[in-house]
Amino acid sequence: MIRTKRRYIVVETSAKIGAGEREAFEKGLYSAMMAQIGEAEYFKANPKVIAFLDERRIILKVNLEKYDESVVALALIKQIDSKVMGLYSIKSSGTIKALGKAKNGTEAGPRHR
Amino acid sequence: MDFYDLARPQALEGAVWSGLGFKRIFCVGKEVRISDPGYPQNRIGGSLCMGVAGEALCSAARSAPLAVMVRDSRIDRKLIETLRSREIILCVSFDGILSSTGLRRTSRIYMTDKLVRYAIKKSVSVCFVTMAASEEMLCSPIQLVKLAELVGAPAEYARRAISETNKGLVYDDQD
Q: How many CB atoms lie within 10 A of CB A47?
Protein backbone atom coordinates (compact mmCIF):
# COMPACT_ATOMS: atom_id res chain seq x y z
CA MET A 1 0.00 0.00 0.00
CA ILE A 2 1.39 3.41 -0.97
CA ARG A 3 1.51 5.85 1.94
CA THR A 4 0.37 9.36 1.09
CA LYS A 5 2.78 12.03 2.29
CA ARG A 6 1.15 14.91 4.12
CA ARG A 7 2.08 18.47 4.91
CA TYR A 8 0.78 20.28 7.99
CA ILE A 9 0.34 24.06 7.75
CA VAL A 10 -0.28 26.50 10.59
CA VAL A 11 -2.77 28.96 9.12
CA GLU A 12 -3.52 32.27 10.78
CA THR A 13 -6.67 34.23 9.97
CA SER A 14 -7.11 38.00 10.01
CA ALA A 15 -10.53 37.67 11.64
CA LYS A 16 -11.42 35.77 14.80
CA ILE A 17 -13.29 32.48 14.53
CA GLY A 18 -15.65 31.99 17.44
CA ALA A 19 -16.31 28.52 18.90
CA GLY A 20 -19.78 28.47 17.32
CA GLU A 21 -18.46 29.44 13.90
CA ARG A 22 -15.88 26.67 13.51
CA GLU A 23 -18.05 24.25 11.54
CA ALA A 24 -19.20 26.95 9.12
CA PHE A 25 -15.62 28.17 8.75
CA GLU A 26 -14.38 24.65 7.97
CA LYS A 27 -17.03 24.10 5.29
CA GLY A 28 -16.44 27.55 3.84
CA LEU A 29 -12.67 26.95 3.73
CA TYR A 30 -13.10 23.67 1.82
CA SER A 31 -15.45 25.32 -0.71
CA ALA A 32 -13.09 28.27 -1.18
CA MET A 33 -10.10 25.95 -1.64
CA MET A 34 -12.03 23.87 -4.15
CA ALA A 35 -12.82 27.03 -6.10
CA GLN A 36 -9.12 27.95 -6.19
CA ILE A 37 -7.56 24.53 -6.78
CA GLY A 38 -10.28 23.29 -9.12
CA GLU A 39 -12.85 20.54 -8.68
CA ALA A 40 -10.84 18.00 -10.65
CA GLU A 41 -7.65 18.54 -8.64
CA TYR A 42 -9.16 19.15 -5.21
CA PHE A 43 -9.12 15.49 -4.17
CA LYS A 44 -5.35 15.38 -4.73
CA ALA A 45 -4.89 18.16 -2.15
CA ASN A 46 -7.50 16.68 0.22
CA PRO A 47 -7.30 19.57 2.74
CA LYS A 48 -8.51 18.88 6.25
CA VAL A 49 -8.64 21.12 9.32
CA ILE A 50 -7.23 18.94 12.06
CA ALA A 51 -7.13 21.43 14.93
CA PHE A 52 -8.22 24.89 15.99
CA LEU A 53 -5.29 26.19 18.06
CA ASP A 54 -7.06 29.37 19.14
CA GLU A 55 -9.48 31.95 17.71
CA ARG A 56 -7.08 32.91 14.95
CA ARG A 57 -4.98 29.82 14.18
CA ILE A 58 -5.70 26.40 12.75
CA ILE A 59 -3.66 23.42 11.58
CA LEU A 60 -4.50 22.39 8.02
CA LYS A 61 -3.42 19.03 6.61
CA VAL A 62 -2.87 18.74 2.85
CA ASN A 63 -1.29 16.13 0.61
CA LEU A 64 2.32 16.93 -0.25
CA GLU A 65 1.56 16.53 -3.96
CA LYS A 66 -0.62 19.66 -3.91
CA TYR A 67 1.18 21.60 -1.18
CA ASP A 68 2.28 24.47 -3.45
CA GLU A 69 -1.21 24.87 -4.93
CA SER A 70 -2.74 24.78 -1.45
CA VAL A 71 -0.47 27.58 -0.18
CA VAL A 72 -1.31 29.71 -3.23
CA ALA A 73 -5.00 28.93 -2.78
CA LEU A 74 -4.84 30.09 0.85
CA ALA A 75 -3.21 33.35 -0.30
CA LEU A 76 -5.94 33.95 -2.90
CA ILE A 77 -8.87 33.28 -0.56
CA LYS A 78 -10.19 36.59 0.79
CA GLN A 79 -13.67 35.61 1.86
CA ILE A 80 -15.01 32.61 3.78
CA ASP A 81 -18.68 32.06 4.41
CA SER A 82 -19.47 35.68 3.40
CA LYS A 83 -16.94 36.93 5.98
CA VAL A 84 -13.98 38.93 4.65
CA MET A 85 -10.73 37.47 5.97
CA GLY A 86 -7.15 36.81 4.95
CA LEU A 87 -5.46 33.44 5.49
CA TYR A 88 -1.72 33.36 6.14
CA SER A 89 0.43 30.22 5.99
CA ILE A 90 2.73 30.84 8.93
CA LYS A 91 4.66 27.61 9.09
CA SER A 92 4.55 24.18 7.49
CA SER A 93 6.04 20.82 8.26
CA GLY A 94 5.79 17.13 7.48
CA THR A 95 4.93 16.31 11.09
CA ILE A 96 2.66 17.93 13.65
CA LYS A 97 5.39 17.63 16.26
CA ALA A 98 7.69 19.95 14.29
CA LEU A 99 4.97 22.60 14.30
CA GLY A 100 5.21 22.67 18.10
CA LYS A 101 7.11 25.92 18.39
CA ALA A 102 4.74 27.81 16.10
CA LYS A 103 1.77 26.26 17.92
CA ASN A 104 3.05 27.70 21.19
CA GLY A 105 3.59 31.05 19.54
CA THR A 106 7.32 31.09 20.22
CA GLU A 107 8.38 30.92 16.62
CA ALA A 108 6.68 31.77 13.34
CA GLY A 109 9.49 31.67 10.83
CA PRO A 110 9.00 30.51 7.24
CA ARG A 111 9.92 26.95 6.38
CA HIS A 112 10.25 25.66 2.86
CA ARG A 113 10.52 22.12 1.69
CA MET B 1 16.99 34.36 5.68
CA ASP B 2 15.13 37.62 6.46
CA PHE B 3 12.12 38.51 4.36
CA TYR B 4 10.75 41.94 3.47
CA ASP B 5 7.50 43.19 1.95
CA LEU B 6 5.96 46.48 0.89
CA ALA B 7 2.41 47.48 1.85
CA ARG B 8 0.19 50.55 2.02
CA PRO B 9 -0.28 52.26 5.43
CA GLN B 10 -3.87 50.96 5.83
CA ALA B 11 -2.63 47.35 5.81
CA LEU B 12 -0.25 48.05 8.68
CA GLU B 13 -2.78 49.67 11.01
CA GLY B 14 -3.66 46.45 12.86
CA ALA B 15 -1.34 43.95 14.53
CA VAL B 16 -1.73 41.10 12.01
CA TRP B 17 1.38 41.99 9.98
CA SER B 18 3.74 41.57 12.93
CA GLY B 19 3.11 37.81 13.23
CA LEU B 20 3.50 36.88 9.58
CA GLY B 21 7.25 36.20 9.68
CA PHE B 22 8.70 39.20 7.84
CA LYS B 23 11.66 40.99 9.32
CA ARG B 24 10.07 44.21 8.15
CA ILE B 25 7.16 45.35 6.00
CA PHE B 26 8.06 48.65 4.38
CA CYS B 27 5.34 51.26 4.24
CA VAL B 28 4.44 53.09 1.03
CA GLY B 29 5.10 56.78 1.47
CA LYS B 30 7.34 56.28 4.52
CA GLU B 31 10.29 53.97 3.85
CA VAL B 32 9.55 53.75 0.13
CA ARG B 33 8.76 56.89 -1.88
CA ILE B 34 6.35 56.44 -4.78
CA SER B 35 6.56 58.47 -7.98
CA ASP B 36 4.75 58.75 -11.28
CA PRO B 37 6.33 59.01 -14.77
CA GLY B 38 4.86 62.54 -14.97
CA TYR B 39 6.89 63.77 -11.99
CA PRO B 40 9.97 65.99 -12.48
CA GLN B 41 13.26 64.10 -12.87
CA ASN B 42 14.59 64.95 -9.39
CA ARG B 43 11.47 63.51 -7.72
CA ILE B 44 11.77 60.20 -9.60
CA GLY B 45 15.35 59.58 -8.48
CA GLY B 46 15.54 57.14 -5.56
CA SER B 47 11.83 56.32 -5.68
CA LEU B 48 9.61 53.47 -6.83
CA CYS B 49 8.22 54.72 -10.13
CA MET B 50 4.77 53.31 -10.98
CA GLY B 51 3.15 53.62 -14.39
CA VAL B 52 1.76 51.80 -17.40
CA ALA B 53 4.14 50.41 -20.02
CA GLY B 54 5.05 53.02 -22.60
CA GLU B 55 7.40 55.81 -23.57
CA ALA B 56 6.68 57.86 -20.41
CA LEU B 57 7.70 55.04 -18.05
CA CYS B 58 10.71 54.23 -20.20
CA SER B 59 11.91 57.81 -20.03
CA ALA B 60 11.23 57.92 -16.25
CA ALA B 61 13.45 54.83 -15.89
CA ARG B 62 16.35 56.98 -17.16
CA SER B 63 15.88 59.35 -14.18
CA ALA B 64 17.50 56.85 -11.75
CA PRO B 65 14.52 55.45 -9.81
CA LEU B 66 15.32 52.62 -7.37
CA ALA B 67 12.65 50.45 -8.92
CA VAL B 68 9.96 50.51 -11.59
CA MET B 69 6.50 48.97 -11.40
CA VAL B 70 4.57 48.27 -14.60
CA ARG B 71 0.92 48.55 -13.56
CA ASP B 72 -0.56 46.81 -16.62
CA SER B 73 2.18 44.09 -16.65
CA ARG B 74 2.69 44.53 -20.41
CA ILE B 75 6.12 43.68 -21.80
CA ASP B 76 7.99 46.75 -23.05
CA ARG B 77 11.27 45.51 -24.51
CA LYS B 78 12.82 48.99 -24.48
CA LEU B 79 11.95 49.45 -20.80
CA ILE B 80 13.36 46.04 -19.84
CA GLU B 81 16.58 46.88 -21.68
CA THR B 82 16.81 50.21 -19.80
CA LEU B 83 16.26 48.44 -16.46
CA ARG B 84 18.96 45.90 -17.29
CA SER B 85 21.56 48.40 -18.42
CA ARG B 86 20.97 50.75 -15.46
CA GLU B 87 20.53 47.97 -12.89
CA ILE B 88 17.08 49.15 -11.83
CA ILE B 89 14.77 46.72 -10.02
CA LEU B 90 11.52 45.63 -11.66
CA CYS B 91 8.97 45.57 -8.86
CA VAL B 92 6.10 43.11 -9.29
CA SER B 93 3.06 43.72 -7.11
CA PHE B 94 0.48 41.05 -6.32
CA ASP B 95 -2.28 43.45 -5.26
CA GLY B 96 -4.03 43.15 -8.64
CA ILE B 97 -3.95 39.35 -8.50
CA LEU B 98 -5.03 39.17 -4.86
CA SER B 99 -7.87 41.67 -5.12
CA SER B 100 -9.45 40.39 -8.35
CA THR B 101 -11.43 37.22 -8.97
CA GLY B 102 -12.26 34.79 -11.78
CA LEU B 103 -11.16 35.49 -15.33
CA ARG B 104 -9.72 38.89 -14.46
CA ARG B 105 -7.42 37.25 -11.91
CA THR B 106 -6.38 34.54 -14.39
CA SER B 107 -5.62 37.18 -17.00
CA ARG B 108 -3.47 39.13 -14.52
CA ILE B 109 -1.56 36.00 -13.52
CA TYR B 110 -0.92 35.29 -17.22
CA MET B 111 0.32 38.85 -17.95
CA THR B 112 2.54 38.91 -14.84
CA ASP B 113 3.95 35.48 -15.69
CA LYS B 114 4.97 36.65 -19.17
CA LEU B 115 6.58 39.83 -17.82
CA VAL B 116 8.48 38.06 -15.00
CA ARG B 117 9.80 35.30 -17.27
CA TYR B 118 10.97 37.84 -19.85
CA ALA B 119 12.63 40.08 -17.24
CA ILE B 120 14.46 37.16 -15.59
CA LYS B 121 15.59 35.92 -19.00
CA LYS B 122 17.02 39.39 -19.71
CA SER B 123 18.84 39.42 -16.32
CA VAL B 124 16.76 42.19 -14.76
CA SER B 125 16.46 42.09 -10.94
CA VAL B 126 12.84 41.38 -10.07
CA CYS B 127 11.32 41.88 -6.63
CA PHE B 128 7.91 40.70 -5.43
CA VAL B 129 5.68 42.63 -3.03
CA THR B 130 2.04 42.45 -1.98
CA MET B 131 1.44 46.24 -1.95
CA ALA B 132 -1.50 45.30 0.26
CA ALA B 133 -4.13 47.96 0.86
CA SER B 134 -5.74 46.09 3.77
CA GLU B 135 -4.87 43.39 6.32
CA GLU B 136 -6.68 40.72 4.30
CA MET B 137 -4.47 41.39 1.29
CA LEU B 138 -1.24 40.72 3.19
CA CYS B 139 0.62 37.44 2.69
CA SER B 140 3.13 35.47 4.73
CA PRO B 141 6.66 34.95 3.35
CA ILE B 142 5.78 31.34 2.43
CA GLN B 143 2.81 32.54 0.39
CA LEU B 144 4.78 35.35 -1.23
CA VAL B 145 7.44 32.85 -2.38
CA LYS B 146 4.78 30.51 -3.79
CA LEU B 147 3.02 33.40 -5.57
CA ALA B 148 6.35 34.42 -7.11
CA GLU B 149 6.81 30.82 -8.27
CA LEU B 150 3.28 30.89 -9.69
CA VAL B 151 4.22 33.83 -11.91
CA GLY B 152 7.33 32.17 -13.28
CA ALA B 153 10.17 32.81 -10.83
CA PRO B 154 12.35 29.81 -9.92
CA ALA B 155 12.08 28.85 -6.22
CA GLU B 156 15.57 29.99 -5.18
CA TYR B 157 15.28 33.21 -7.21
CA ALA B 158 11.92 33.96 -5.55
CA ARG B 159 13.33 33.52 -2.04
CA ARG B 160 16.32 35.72 -2.81
CA ALA B 161 14.09 38.36 -4.40
CA ILE B 162 11.85 38.58 -1.33
CA SER B 163 14.81 38.90 1.02
CA GLU B 164 17.67 40.72 -0.70
CA THR B 165 15.99 42.49 -3.63
CA ASN B 166 13.00 43.67 -1.57
CA LYS B 167 15.40 45.17 0.97
CA GLY B 168 16.90 47.18 -1.89
CA LEU B 169 13.62 49.08 -2.30
CA VAL B 170 14.61 51.35 0.58
CA TYR B 171 16.89 54.15 -0.47
CA ASP B 172 18.69 54.90 2.79
CA ASP B 173 17.89 51.86 4.91
CA GLN B 174 19.81 52.01 8.18
CA ASP B 175 19.03 48.38 9.08
A: 22
Ordered by start, the domain boundaries in chain A are 6-92
Residue among A14, A33, A67, A80 with most chain B CBs within 10 A, to mutate? A14
**Cβ neighbours of B112 in A, within 8 Å:** none
Cβ-nearest to A72 among B19, B21, B146? B146
| Whole-structure pTM value | 0.91
ipTM of this complex prediction, to 2 decimal places: 0.90
**Three-state secondary structure call for residue A44:** helix
- B25 part of contact set with chain A, CB < 8 Å: no
pLDDT in tens, B132-159: 999 999 999 999 999 999 999 999 999 9
pLDDT at res. A106: 40
Query: Which of A28-37, B37-46, B165-174 reaches the highest mean pLDDT?
Result: A28-37
CB–CB contacts below 8 A, A to B: 71
> Residue A23 is inside which H or E element, if any?
helix A22-37
Q: Walk along chain A (113 residues) in steps of 10 and give the mean pLDDT of each run.
A: 90 92 94 94 95 94 96 96 92 89 48 42
DSSP string, chain B: ---EEEE-GGGGSSSGGGGSS-SEEEEBTTTB-EE-TTS-HHHHTTSEEEE-SSHHHHHHGGG--SEEEETT----HHHHHHHHHHT-EEEEE-HHHHH--HHHHHHHHHHHHHHHHHHHHTT--EEEE--BSSGGG---HHHHHHHHHHTT--HHHHHHIIIIIHHTT-TT---
Question: Which architecture characterizes domain A6-92 according to CATH?
Answer: 2-Layer Sandwich (3.30)
